[in-house]
Write a structure and sequence with these properties.
This protein has 108 residues and is an alpha+beta fold. The chain has one domain. The chain contains four helices and four strands; from the N terminus they run αααββαββ. Strands 1-2-4-3 form a four-stranded antiparallel beta sheet. A hairpin with a 5-residue loop joins strand 3 and strand 4. The longest helix has 18 residues. The protein is globular. The two termini are 22 Å apart.
Length: 108
């Protein structure tokens, strides 16, 4: 998938800085080529619950942000992330005391 299309799908307006950040994320995410499509699918799936995938402002990786409108939807979003991680062998790290995960990469 083209970088412009990825940024657009994630809700960004492509520009040189974002394209550069996305390239760093791609290079920093182990096995990115194997999981990129699944990351975009997860983003679309999570939107239903009010959650999303975005580019991290502090690390060169994607983050998953849960902003569900209810505890039930938040729980459902966590379950979707667990399913995504298990099914596609993607390593995600949950931040302590936050509803945020970082996508680390493909688990060999």
């Amino acid at each position: 998938m083209q970088r412009d299309a990825i940024l657009t799908q994630l809700g960004y307006a492509p520009n040189d800085a974002l394209l550069s950040q996305l390239e760093r994320i791609e290079n920093n995410t182990h096995g990115y080529d194997k999981i990129s499509k699944h990351i975009m699918d997860l983003h679309d799936t999570l939107k239903i619950d009010g959650s999303f995938v975005a580019m991290s402002n502090t690390n060169d990786c994607f983050k998953i942000k849960i902003e569900a409108r209810s505890p039930e939807l938040a729980e459902e979003a966590h379950a979707k992330i667990k399913h995504f991680s298990d099914k596609f062998k993607v390593i995600v790290n949950k931040l302590d005391n936050k509803d945020t995960y970082y996508i680390v990469g493909f688990d060999k």
